[in-house]
Amino acid sequence: MAAAHRGDKRLYERLLRETAVAIDRYIRRRFGALSFVDDCVQECLLAVHNARHTYNPERPFRPWLFALVRNKTIDLLRRSYAEHPLSEELDAHSLPAPAAPELEADAEDILARLKPQFRSALVLTKIEGYSLGEAADRTGISETAMKSRVSRALRAAEAMLKAERDVQ
Fold first, then answer.
1. What pLDDT, in 10s, does the model give residues 26-84?
2. Does the residue 91 lie in any domain?
């Protein structure tokens, strides 16, 4: 990237080719096998190109690159989930997609019965799509505490669903 700043087009093209491979691996490892990984890689490369002027050659390149890639990928995931909220790419810890109005009411009831801090953690991370770090920042707690709250919220919601099924 420092060579690109100096105008070396050959090295900049090489950087983009090598970066594309690293970005692809990063996205697949961090976010799973998304159906739009190739599109995401291209969007990230475009973001790298557009933000290249913000890179400080006196600092390490990889942290700058992957901060940009992480943020761009999260933006794309949010956009994808907003456009296709019932996507099959939701992770295993997401609340089940309601198939009928009664089930939707049950999900809302379960959310309402959770402790406020657990409800907030679940809504921010699983419904609104914020990362653990972003949700933690929004609520003023540590990322570890947010992870714990999400885990506890999911266990509590699962227990409530199980209890309701046992009653029926």
1. 877 776 666 677 888 888 899 888 988 888 888 888 888 888 888 888 888 787 766 65
2. no
Q: Which residues contact 11 (CB under 8 A, 6 or more apart)?
A: 3, 4
One domain for residues 109 and 79: no
Residue 11 in tokens: 């090295």
Domain end call among 53, 83, 113: 83
- Residue 134 exposed, middle or buried by CB count within 10 Å (0-12, 13-18, 19+): middle
Check residue 125 and report its DSSP letter.
I
Integer Cα distance of 28 and 41 in angstroms: 10
Instruction: Output the pTM of the full model.
Output: 0.46
Look at residue 92 and tell me if it is in a domain: no
Total structural domains within the chain: 2
Residues 64/48, Cβ–Cβ less than 8 Å: no
DSSP state of 126: I
